[in-house]
Amino acid sequence: xxxxxxxxxxxxxxxxxxxxxxxxxxxxxxxxxxxxxxxxxxxxxxxxxxxxxxxxxxxxxxxxxxxxxxxxxxxxxxxxxxxxxxxxxxxxxxxxxxxxxxxxxxxxxxxxxxxxxxxxxxxxxxxxxxxxxxxxxxxxxxxxxxxxxxxxxxxxxxxxxxxxxxxxxxxxxxxxxxxxxxxxxxxxxxxxxxxxxxxxxxxxxxxxxxxxxxxxxxxxxxxxxxxxxxxxxxxxxxxxxxxxxxxxxxxxxxxxxxxxxxxxxxxxxxxxxxxxxxxxxxxxxxxxxxxxxxxxxxxxxxxxxxxxxxxxxxxxxxxxxxxxxxxxxxxxxxxxxxxxxxxxxxxxxxxxxxx
Length: 355
Fold this sequence. Notes:
Elements: H1 2-28, H2 50-60, E1 65-69, H3 78-84, E2 88-92, H4 98-111, E3 116-120, H5 152-155, H6 158-169, H7 199-208, H8 220-237, E4 242-247, H9 252-260, H10 264-278, E5 284-288, H11 293-296, H12 310-321, H13 332-354
Parallel strand pairs: 1-2, 1-3, 3-4, 4-5
Helix pairs in contact: 1-6, 2-4, 3-12, 4-8, 8-10, 9-13, 10-13
């Protein structure tokens, strides 16, 4: 009798609350893992949420084209992208590593026939081990596999429960983040920049954050292996898809940093290798916006040493539409030389700004 009473008490005080969490998370489904939200507006924001969001977006939204990459792709406007690749969606992840992009695209292909992929190819994302992910943000691999049973990590999560309550309360509708309820502005950070950051402040912040690179992670061989495994393998597998791949135009400070850290040679070898590899595929166009000096030397285009404003994101789409800065056999060597020049000219620019 006592055992029966204990079981009843356990059910009342433990099992019911736990199942209650699961029911709420399933019904509200704040990250749209099971269905597209209809009762509540969806908030396309939060750096720590992007990787959770994409699992639901890829599965339950309608799209033919995908923008994928790091924070360098977060400021793309959907209306701009649609001019190049209609019916588009953004799978942007702050600090995205190549393996995360690989995982997201493979997952999306399970549910959709993708006509176009616009991929921001970050050199930083190719460094390190092949399956490296951003260490400071969880990647929910359990949402990207075929095992429905490990979804318990989603259903019974107290963090997800908080998101369920926030979704019901529409927490962000009355904050500065309300723009992120708009599909057009999904994941963008431009609205947070209220005033231009001075060139001197950008340089000072960049200098204060400098730290030694792990040269093994930046070796040509390691980056090559990551590119082959994470990016090239998908291109080989999907000849039906048009791939627009571009190098984001970081400011000249990034190229100076590569030179000073002793990895520029490996980066240039990698860029040559990437062109040679991609030039074999008719469904791929490679663009290098790092060679555009009037962009990369103008710090008024940036909020820090790497992140360019939304106006540059729109400009990038226009250039790809017009086939400008497309890498070809006739310009690959000159483009590599331009990057060397930018790293060499950096000291003069810094000195002029600081004085």
